[in-house]
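Complex 198.
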Amino acid sequence: MRRLNTQIPPLKTHRLLLRPYQEEDLTDLFTFCCHPQVGPAAGWIPHENISKSKQVLVSFISQGEVWAVEEIKSKQVVGSIGLHQDKARAVGKEFVLSMGYVLSPAVWGMGYATEGARRVLRYIFSEMENPPELVSVAHYDFNDRSRRVIEKCGFKFEGVIRKAAIVPEHGLCDSWKYSMTQREWHQTVVQEGTFLKD
Ligand SMILES: CC(C)(COP(=O)(O)OP(=O)(O)OC[C@H]1O[C@@H](n2cnc3c(N)ncnc32)[C@H](O)[C@@H]1OP(=O)(O)O)[C@@H](O)C(=O)NCCC(=O)NCCS
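Predicted structure with coenzyme A bound:
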């Protein structure tokens, strides 16, 4: 089975450097992971203390599935983008990867999530040696910001899993599912030249 562990290379965009996490990122990671608007929107509880962030950072470093999103101008880590197994699909990582992202509220609305997610899609479908068949992504019903990021990346809407999860601060939520196949990437995104310049 494909292992992502050694496979997340540094990726650059105009304003961002996506790179593997390192121990020095702990303070930056805690800064956005403790924010009450960040974790719950992605389905997890805000970090109550820096030890929780340390635990998460250690797993990010050892698993190698999550990029630190470094803002080039400030050199600060302002978020994460991860690629994981999609547990809702009965296939392994060699066929389907699921993308997730969070950013510090200090940089919301600047287009960073879209810029980073598009770069990761380009890496997956145009640069990975054995790309997966499909990349999935999802957002909870209340998360219009994430919905816009997904739409701007060109994902196809699949449907809604109603009452999919109990989300911290939000209760029982529907999950909106989207995906993009290799073929869709090449046909729709690359041929239309939608975001090749990122
Ligand atoms: C979701 C998230 C990553 C988006 O990051 P971002 O860098 O602000 O995203 P972008 O700037 O690329 O795009 C945001 C879009 O949402 C729109 N938006 C902002 N506030 C909005 C609101 N209240 N309602 C609807 N849309 C909104 C923006 O206008 C923009 O769309 P546009 O380009 O069409 O104008 C960020 O809000 C975040 O980290 N949220 C908490 C964690 C989270 O939700 N993660 C995703 C889990 S699925």
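Residues 81 and 124 are 13 Å apart (CA to CA).
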